Amino acid sequence: MESQLEVWLILALVAASWGQESCNCATNRWTLCEEDESGRCTCTLVGSDRRVDCSTLTSKCFLMKAQMTPRKSKRFHSPGTPLVGNEGLYNPDCEDSGGFKARQCDPSGTCWCVDSAGVRRTEKGDRSLSCGELTRTSCIYVELKHSMARAFEDGEVANALERLLQNRYRLCPEYIAGVKYDAPFIQIRLNQDDSEKSDRDVDIADVAYYFEKDIKNDSVFHTNNKLNVSVNGKALDIENIQIYYIDETPPQFSARRMISGITVVVTVVTLIIIFGVTVLVILRWRRVRNYERFEIRNGSSQKSNLTV
């Protein structure tokens, strides 16, 4: 009887453990997932009570916020490096919909304006800074480089990456403007206007963020869903990624920043010219001095010959 009870206890523990393992968010590992009494799995974002739709991608703003949340358990992922962009390390303010708020501020009160991809597009100011409406990132260029173990046909690479963007990242094909391939370089262009995007469509900024995380071995997907890119059954080993964001309107950086950059360049060039001129003067002076010494020595030898 006791042995049967032990068996039942073991089976119950195994079932509970299996239930916990099966209750996870396939598209976001920065979540806490639990099963309710009815057996339904619900997931919330780390650091908040916000419910996560695990059938699609989580917004970039929510993911950045989850990354900045201190980890209190080994169940959570701890990023190896801090999240640093052109605006520095910051904890973003997000709309309820998941988008970035147009104005972002750090704890010191320094504020700046961002686009829909969370990229800074203005000079920094104080809390009086006004950003207006959020500017949309309508075009994204993703530049990749793969290892030169082998080269592929242009069409094969384009088809493989288009399938990857559609199947793994749920991106509609009409937002993939093109894929160019010149071994070992690949360029992907994503276009998405506000007028085209529906509420159910994933944002190209979220796709680019997920893709970048995958390439850098810091995937947002659940640990059982690793990135595997292949072209006709052969692995496409991507070793570098660079992302460029283009907004509907140009960024608003002041001319003072450009002037300061130009000033630095002019200063460096001036110093190089001064150094070069100084070197030429020293070399010429040494050459003239050596020539004068030769003339003196030659004149002395002629005098001694005449004396003899």
Automatic annotation (TrEMBL):
Q: Where in the cell is it found?
A: Membrane
**Could you tell me which InterPro entries the record lists for this protein?**
EPCAM-Trop-2_C, EPCAM/Trop-2, EpCAM_N, Thyroglobulin_1, Thyroglobulin_1_sf
The leader peptide range reads 1-19
User: What membrane topology was assigned to this protein in its record?
Assistant: Single-pass type I membrane protein
- What Pfam families does its record include? EPCAM-Trop-2_C (PF21283), EpCAM_N (PF18635), Thyroglobulin_1 (PF00086)
Recorded family membership: Belongs to the EPCAM family.
What this protein is called in its record is: TACD2 protein
